[in-house]
Design brief:
Chain A: Keywords: ATP synthesis, Cell membrane, CF(1), Hydrogen ion transport, Ion transport, Membrane, Transport. Chain A: Produces ATP from ADP in the presence of a proton gradient across the membrane. The structure holds two protein chains of two kinds. Chain A is built from two helices and nine strands, in the order βββββββββαα. Chain A is α+β, with helices and mostly antiparallel strands. Chain A folds into two domains: about 80 residues, F0F1 ATP synthase delta/epsilon subunit, N-terminal (ATP Synthase, domain 1, Sandwich); about 35 residues, no CATH class. Chain B has one domain: 3-Layer(aba) Sandwich (Pyruvate Kinase, Chain: A, domain 1), CATH 3.40.1380. Chain B is elongated, with a radius of gyration of 30 Å. The two termini of chain B are about 35 Å apart. The chains are: A alpha+beta, B alpha/beta.
């Protein structure tokens, strides 16, 4: 079966890369599932959303929080570029909860920070 | 004689401790260069990808309008972002950057533009302060080990000012003066124009970017891509400057250690000479005394 070559990169490092069966990303307009053979797309990610990657070898989904960024799909290569990116497995849950509390306390003015904090928790598999 | 000997001993002690300090600084700098280079490497995938995406977008939509892409001939103010370090001990590193910035500023003045400095790093800030030059913005504490968040902060401020007109204190173009890390031995002060954006075409031949669909629209994608591209450029320049800074520190500290060691050799020789002279003098005094005694006592 054809696979996707996926790279999730932030300016500071390559967060995840490898072969995958499927990628799910969230744009401003809604969720987008990407399978091999997808038409070329360049899309804007929703700031503070979760990207899910199903690696080719084992079925465990990899989740990651992404901030401001975009993704491009071309010839079964998916690159996800986000200024903030963090794997769910690396999220410090307690810290993310605290960030969420702070963002909530700051009120409506900081909607992005709240969304990012929620995304971090969701990527870590927590309720938010 | 004895006073000179003591003085030389003292001097040797002080040179030795200086050499120890500069040697330690040299070793710290060496380990930081490695880290800085790793950071440069780690930032490459992102920078490459974003450049590729942006050139794909622009080449497919020739004539697409975006404020960050358009020249603003009516705005006469030009921002000059000068990247210096917070600390010295780096030989000519900061002097080179500032000299390059000054010649850029002179060139801009000759073109009838009004240059406005934006300065990163303590050394640059104090240089401009001392000369009572006005700075539009100054940042400290990011040049040693730059992180992306700082690059984002600088980038935001610059794009904001770019989008404003002259009357509101904005600028019409943005130049950056930074130091490129060519190799361990060579670092070069460079001037680049950051805004309006000139996207560097990919150098690989025959690579036609795929015909992308844009989600939600090309304009929205450009709105996001351009600021992120600029921030990634600034981040790249900050990393390059940091690596160059550490390389300059290493070189400066290495020559300081070498000089100290050379001085140590000179002083040691002088001290030995002085000691020998003292001994010789003492012997001749004893011999002279004994002879005088023998002459007078024999009678």
């Amino acid at each position: 079966m054809a696979t996707l070559k996926v790279g999730l990169v932030s300016p500071e490092r390559e967060v995840w890369s490898g072969e995958a069966k499927m990628v799910v990303a969230q744009t401003i307009e809604g969720e987008l599932g990407i399978l091999p053979g997808h038409a070329p797309v360049l899309g804007v990610l929703l700031d503070g959303s979760v990207v899910k990657i199903q690696p080719a070898e084992d079925g465990e989904w990899v989740t990651a929080m992404v901030g401001s960024g975009f993704f491009s799909i071309a010839n079964d290569e998916v690159s996800i570029l986000a200024e903030q990116a963090e794997l769910g497995a690396e999220v410090n849950v307690a810290e993310a909860r605290k960030a969420l509390e702070e963002a909530r306390a700051a009120g409506q003015a900081d909607a992005t920070a709240e969304r990012r904090a929620r995304a971090r928790l969701r990527a870590a598999g927590q309720d938010a | 004689m004895a006073a000179q000997l003591r003085q030389l001993r003292q001097r040797i002690r002080s040179v030795k401790s200086t050499a120890k300090i500069t040697r330690a600084q040299e070793m710290i700098a060496t380990s930081r260069i490695v880290k800085a280079q790793q950071a440069v490497e780690a930032s490459k995938p992102y920078a490459d990808q974003i450049t590729r995406a942006l050139s794909a977008l622009i080449s497919h939509h020739v004539g697409i309008k975006h404020p960050l892409l358009t020249e603003q001939p009516e705005d006469k103010r030009s921002a000059v972002l000068v990247i210096t370090s917070d600390r010295g001990f780096a030989g000519g590193y900061n002097a080179n950057v500032i000299r390059e910035a000054e010649s850029l500023i002179t060139a801009l003045r000759e073109q009838g533009r009004e240059p406005v400095p934006y300065v990163i790093g303590n050394k640059g800030i104090t240089w401009y302060r001392f000369r009572n030059r006005e700075m539009a913005a100054e940042w400290r504490g990011i040049s040693d080990r730059p992180d992306f968040a700082s690059a984002e902060r600088v980038g935001r401020r610059l794009t904001e000012d770019f989008l404003k007109s002259d009357a509101e204190g904005g600028v019409g173009e943005i130049h950056v003066v930074y130091t490129e890390f060519v190799s361990m031995l060579t670092q070069r002060a460079q001037v680049r124009r950051l805004l309006p954006v000139e996207v560097v075409e990919s150098t690989e031949p025959d690579v036609v970017p795929p015909a992308y669909d844009f989600e939600p629209s090309p304009e929205a994608a450009l709105d996001l891509l351009l600021p992120n591209y600029i921030e990634s450029r600034i981040y790249h320049m900050l990393l390059q400057s940091a690596a160059s800074y550490h390389a300059s520190v290493r070189r400066a500290m290495k020559s300081a250690t070498d000089n100290a060691n050379e001085l140590l050799g000179v002083y040691t020789r002088q001290m030995n000479q002085a000691r020998q002279a003292a001994i010789t003098q003492e012997i001749s005094e004893i011999v002279g005394g004994a002879e005088a005694l023998a002459d007078s006592g024999g009678e």
